[in-house]
Amino acid sequence: YIRNTVNELPQQERSFFEARGVHDLLMIPVTFEGKLFGVISFENTEKKDNFSDDDLNFLVSIADLVKYYVRKYKSHDS
User: Fold this and answer.
1) Cα 41 to Cα 22: distance, rounded to the nearest angstrom
2) Predicted local confidence at residue 17, as pLDDT
3) What residue segments make up the domains of the chain, in order of their start?
4) Residue-level pLDDT at 49
5) Which of 3, 26, 32, 66 has the highest CB neighbour number within 10 Å of its CB?
6) Residues 6 or more apart from 23 whose CB is under 8 A from it?
7) Taking the chain, what is the end-to-end CA distance rounded to the nearest angstrom?
């Protein structure tokens, strides 16, 4: 996962997020069968505080649900 402030990013990425008013990022990869399926992310535009461990745990739970349903869909489709 990625959890950091926009200020910690390389300049090109920092400029992209700063232009959108983003202060902090929380990104969780969603993988299926060892391959990247997608990314779920939260962007904090309200305050300049890092995301909490509770925020991280919530997003990990959502990513796990997505993986579960992708696996279920793929097995049903086979």
Assistant:
1) 12
2) 93
3) 2-77
4) 75
5) 26
6) 5, 6, 44, 45, 46, 47, 48, 49
7) 30
State the Cα–Cα distance between residues 22 and 46, nearest whole angstrom. 8
CA dist., res. 67 & res. 55, Å (int): 19
- Residue range 2-77 in CATH 3.30.450.40: yes
CA distances, 49 to each of 5, 28, 56, 58, 76 (Å)? 8, 18, 14, 17, 42
Q: Which residues face 38 on adjacent strands?
A: 30
CB atoms within 10 A of CB 24: 22
Q: What is the pTM of this model?
A: 0.75
